[in-house]
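thread: overnight batch results

M.L. [08:02]
morning all. the overnight job finished for the chain we discussed friday. pasting input first so we're all looking at the same thing
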Amino acid sequence: MTSVLTEVLADRFAGLALGHVTREYPNKLDQVLTGPDDLRAPRALHPVFYGSFDWHSCVHGYWMLAHLYRRFPAMPRAAAIRAVLDAHLTPERVAGECAFLAHPGARGFERPYGWAWLLHLAAELVRHGSPEGRMWTAALWPLAVMFADRYRAFLPLATYPVRGGSHANTAFAATLALDFPDPALQALLRATAVRWYAGDADCQAWEPEGDAFLSPALMEAVCMRKVLPDADFRTWFARFLPRLDVCQPGTLFAPARVSDRTDGKIAHLDGLNLSRAWCWRILAPFCPDPAAIDRTAWAHIDASLPHLGGDYMGEHWLASFAVLALG
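M.L. [08:03]
and the structure it wrote out:
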């Protein structure tokens, strides 16, 4: 997949993220209360990831900032990104995140979507390789290890995958978490994905759901692309989506229509268009007509890329998915 992300776009996306990763309110907490003392402000509960409306969106906002800073270190907002990462990715702040995760009521906190994005952020910081990247990695690492350990405990218990189009989707979570540099966890994720999906065939693609930001069909295919050798994947993919040569299932080729971008759930559909584009661009080389798939990906990008800002319900997270889509 060839990147089409430019420095101009990267700087624009960074500006969006810098406007929300440290914006504490409005805020949608994910918390199980075990007593009155658990009621605290977002910044007290989450010293790093208190912004961006919800915890997981803040995590992938930080991922995007770190990713863009590595890719475009000379962009105008690079210094602002560095300042935010320096201020928030510190041992003291991360210790506060670890303390929240160790709470007895937090066993299922952000499973699996937030888990995957946190490990993806950690993997991105490792890629920096610079002194500052190593400093940020060292600070975040204890939290990453806690989530990696949760994956190790959870995956053997996960008898069935979750195939929905939002946060619970297990294919998306496995795809991101596979980048975390832990060979034992990677092996467990691969084995689990094969257990979940290897027997799937003739996908009907009953989508989109009204609040989806992921395509269950395409996301599963991308996950299997990541875990199978090329030849094995071609065989599996031809069985999973056997009618791509006639653009079927047709719903996968049509961008979703977003009727109200001020409604947080309906605004998810812009994310669906962007994540489908990301998936299609990965899968295109394995499709009967890669050029047609590339046009489909761009139709999805064009439908939603102009709408990353303007309302906070999309603005607090969509740019991260645009970065995935553009490569």
